[in-house]
Amino acid sequence: MATVDDYVSRIEGTCGAESDVIVVFKYEKKDEAISNILKKATLKNKIAGIIFELTFQGQSFRVYSTGKAIFRGVKNKQELNELLVALLL
Amino acid sequence: MVAYSWGLSNLGKGDEVLVSLMEHHSNIVPWEITAKIKGFTIKYANVHPDGTLDYDDFESKISKKTKIACLSHVSNVTGVINDVKRIGKVAHDNGALMLVDGAQSMPHMKVNVQDLDMDFLAFSGHKMLAPTGIGVFYGKKEVLEKMPPFMGGGEMIKEVSVSQGQCSVSWNELPWKFEAGTPNIGGAIGLGAAVKYLEALGMDNVLSHEKELTKYASERMKECSKVTVYGPSDLSKKLGIIPFGVKGLSSHDVALFFDNYGVMMRSGYHCAQPLHEIFKLESSARASFYIYNTQQEVDRFLEVLKEFEQL
Known about the structure:
heterodimer; A: 89 residues; alpha+beta; TATA-Binding Protein; 6-stranded antiparallel beta sheet; 3 helices; globular; B: alpha/beta; Aspartate Aminotransferase, domain 2; Aspartate Aminotransferase, domain 1; 11 helices
């Protein structure tokens, strides 16, 4: 059974007042991860074919075609993990 | 090392340490930690809205209570070059020492510590083509000789003898007194090679190459209406670092956008949160140039930057 760890390489807290979280997908799974996310989240905007502005369960975030995603205002690791489970699996 | 070795043995209640607000956290946090132990006061000197040092404020805060003045030679956020010789003279006239963070100056320009009359200067290897985990700490010999060791073990020991069940310890001479533990041999060899390489290039050539790229990039960035460049507009006051923001996007979005095109840059506070608070910014993206960058790469950076105009 697939898990979030199958898709996620690492999670980085950003440095700055924004308290964003960057999720880096595993290179070999990034296309599958992005495809899964695009099926479940609502696309608000697609920028230059490489940035997807999305919302899911009231959470706005951006996914980049290189296999990275920025989530804003996520309260804690548990909330982020729940979002990733719902988006990826 | 200065905060712990010199600071813990020379500072106490009633003493003051003067630090600028443009410092990297590494020149703030050690003083904050040791101030809690020894009870001395830290005073912070202001920075103008364009990122240049408020010299009047810095100098007005130096008094007979000031034991050390701490200032970066070049800001790691804006590239602003500080007149550390001027500040050092005022510090010395008041009986204080002068500590300079040279992490952003040594890799990019000629620095003569004796001409500048600094008491301490530190810089990192990884900013000048050397491996991570190695750096250089310079201090005036007469000051270093009075300082106790920073850490214990290995090369810093001269002798550990036993008499009547008690150990007696003596320290090695300089520079080994400050080189505890097994040396970072690989790092030192790498740093030595980097220094030789830069010396062969010539630091004046390194500086002029960076200045050229910075001038070119700065002028072309003005063509991008969504881009705001922070720091002084007078390029003679700075080195090859351009902090900027893009309207409507966080610095992390900007960095990830560039990442899509194979252009790497730093985003966030750059370990200098106070300066960002002065700029009233949540964070910034930072373009920076070094000897390995070319004008073609700057053109590529500008091409990607112009794509923000279409968003």
